[in-house]
Amino acid sequence: MRQLSCHHTCLCLTLLPALTLFAIGCGQSGPAVEYVKGVVTLDGTPLEGATVFFSPKGSDGIGAAGMTQPDGSFTLNAKGAKPGAGTVVGDYSVTVTKVEMPDFPNITEDDPRYGTPEHDRLNQEASRAKPKAIVPEKYNSSETSPFTATVGSGNNTFTFDVSSKDD
Questions:
Q1: How many CB atoms lie within 10 A of CB 68?
Q2: Contact criterion met (CB below 8 Å) for 68 and 48
Q3: Are residues 161 and 50 in contact, defined by beta-carbon separation less than 8 angstroms?
Q4: CA–CA dist 20, 25 (Å, integer)
Q5: Which residues in 116-155 are b (16+ Cβ under 10 Å) and which e?
Q6: Which one-letter DSSP state was computed for residue 139?
């Protein structure tokens, strides 16, 4: 019995480093990415709530997106990577989009307009409402956006100034 126990102990001690390395390797999933952050402005003013998308120019790269904060800052999130990590090294076309839906009142049962023709009219208007583009159309497509970025090793910081004037 003693040799069997020793055999198991030796086997476990031999396999323990390999299993530890395997477990550590399994904890890191997704592509190897580089940190990417930046700022988006609209006519020089920070643009909140815009979506920034990095689209690979060639076969290298992984598409990544981020949402701008109140100060216009963003961090990229690549598909399959840890949130906020960035994207892989490569050349990218960059698009910026932001749309807003018109505001309509939220009519509840305690509102005097509830169930009235006015309520029906507001519901019909809301269902037909189209989003308002805050960022001009040319910035919404990788074919027409003037923005590009090259992501390299290490930290990457970019600034994109969107113009509300159509050129």
A1: 24
A2: yes
A3: no
A4: 9
A5: eeeeeebeeeeeeeeeeebbbeebbebeebebebebeeee
A6: G
Digit-coded pLDDT (tens) for 29-64: 567 889 999 999 999 999 999 999 999 998 778 899
Please give the biggest Cα pair distance in the chain: 89
Q: Quick: pLDDT tens for 88-114.
A: 999 999 999 999 888 877 888 888 888
The count of C-alpha atoms lying within 13 angstroms of the C-alpha of 16, restricted to the half-sphere facing its C-beta, is 7
Tokens 């919404």: give the residue. 140
Residue 95 tokens read as 């698009």
Alpha helical stretches, state H, 28-146: 117-128
Question: Hey, how many other C-beta atoms are within 10 angstroms of the C-beta on 35?
Answer: 15
Q: Which of 143, 146, 142 is nearest to 165 (CA)?
A: 146
DSSP 8-state assignment for residue 153? S
